[in-house]
């Protein structure tokens, strides 16, 4: 997304990255955490705790990605595509568990 | 976002740090004070200072409860311990909870002055006195803190070679950057741990995937499965309650040493009454309260619970690392100092933002944006220090019989803080504002032990003589704070000589945005 | 024993610091050979490992590491703040700590 030494950032660009980080990042984290806890072969409360511990690390990574991604498109896709994959895996499993 | 990963992280660190820095300063400073919350509460209640430790009279406490609330749904007895030498009883009736404080040995009633004590800082720290929305705001700030720490490490050019680098006589910007770096890097494991464990505490609120998936969004049932408490409904058939002191003694046979913290009675006086004896978690890193549950009417053991499963224990260690319930004073003092280090890291970071831009753009000119940032920084940093001192002054000066006394102490705190905020708008010279507010807080802290001498019997001279270390430490820390703040105020007043860098090398400066 | 731990942390960190060319120059005003620096740094790491062992001995395996990390942070800060103002004092403190702490233990 551009060459040059000191890029001037349009406020719209910054705002989009912030939304991507906050909301897109949260969506990815939620989906990935749900996915992880349904896949872990542990008792219910153990799986929930373990996956949740990783969730804060995932969210941190997601926020960093949202701002580090070379383009706005990659920023959003890098968050939403994994989120949708995780959701696709997690939803049927969650329904089976009754959640 | 920018041309390189490092530049993007630089931008993120600078702006995330600035926008959340004021909030994070408040969270970390109140958190640091919360390390000694019980000690602060004790200092703020001089009526309790004469209490001598001894074996608590559980039976008299139980009788007091039977007198005060014979038809309550639940009773609690909280036994005294090293940091809190008073016996407390609580009861829940018709949805409301009441408390009474008793002397440990005689179980006579004590009524110290109404105050929030150290809990004021505790509630400020995790919810900014705003309940649920406050918890959300603090959580968001904590996530930004994690990102700021990670990005800070990424952009720190020479984190190992500059590990011990501190150049107080270099340019203003470089000196502040050095302080920001050393307070950050030397205690980095602490900063990462405390932020992460803080987020884990409220995981059902911050990351409710676990609660939604397995417990249909019901937080209460999630906790219930973690704690596995034995519950049952009352029969509405009266039956006398077994003596609590016997049950408490029997509970010890299921534990390896240790003392009791809580005795809870559910449906006292009912045939289906339950008595839960909970152990004080002060000797383990994992914050797990072992528990024995008895049938209240027959004394039969219904459940012996110890936290055992691996993820639960890991989670409990995280809780333990943050809540600091264990009785290790050296570690407690280290946490206090590292908390101050984190607070200093945040404050210097805020200072750095302005200093760098002033050096680069307009050293003497007045730019509204910079002025706003500087004013906010003084108001939050120096203002908070003044407000904390005023809170303690109010505790000693407000009349004891004043209605809503605890609320008035809080009002004094916020009035002082507001006053400091207004003060930042009065003068043009930022350095003067810093100097005045820091001097103000220095004077208030230095004179606090003197005020203590005038208003109570347990002042520094007595407490040092009698070995009452909790109270003596409080006064001594106030002295130290006063001296440190006074020195800082004095330093700000002097023009700084910029010497050539003694280490003789040019270093790339982070933060080119 | 806690004093021993503090002394070892401070001295160990001082050694790691003095083993860096720029700080060696800052303290003693001259440069030293690479071998000399390596020796000092090795002594430093040894002191830190010893401090860890002492902490675990006194506090157990759960509290030991916690106290050690905290102790390192605080002694490190003290050292870093002393260094630009009084580098020689920082050096003497490291020596004194290593001598006095074991004596304290024996008393």
Describe the structure.
The complex is a heterotrimer of chains A (99), B (513) and C (107). By secondary structure, chain A is mainly alpha-helical. Chain A is 81% helix and 0% strand. Chain A has three helices and no strands. Chain B has 513 residues and is α+β, with helices and mostly antiparallel strands. Among the domains of chain B are: 46-110; 228-323, Nuclear Transport Factor 2, Chain: A (Roll), CATH 3.10.450; 361-497, no CATH class. Chain B is 57% helix and 9% strand. Chain B contains 18 helices and eight strands. Chain B is globular. Chain C has one domain (2-106). Chain C contains four helices and no strands. In chain C, 44% of the residues are buried. The chains are: A mainly alpha (99), B alpha+beta (513), C mainly alpha (107). Chains in contact: A-B, B-C.
Summary keywords:
heterotrimer; A: 99 residues; mainly alpha; 0% strand; elongated; disordered N terminus; C: 107 residues; 4 helices; 91% helix
Number of strands of chain A: 0
Q: Give the tally of β-strands of chain B.
A: 8
The pair of chains with the biggest contact is:
A-B, 43 and 38 residues
Query: Which percent bin holds the helix content of chain A?
Result: over 70%
Envelope shape of chain B: globular
Uncertain residue ranges of chain A: 1-5
**β content of chain B, as a range?**
5-15%
User: Which structural class fits the helix and strand makeup of chain B?
Assistant: alpha+beta
Mean pLDDT of chain B equals 89
Secondary-structure element string of chain A: HHH
Note the run of SSEs of chain B as H and E.
Answer: HHHEEEEHHHHHHHHEEEEHHHHHHH
- Mean pLDDT over the residues of chain A: 88
Radius of gyration of chain A: 16 Å
Instruction: Output the number of helix runs of chain B.
Output: 18
> What's the structural domain tally of chain A?
1
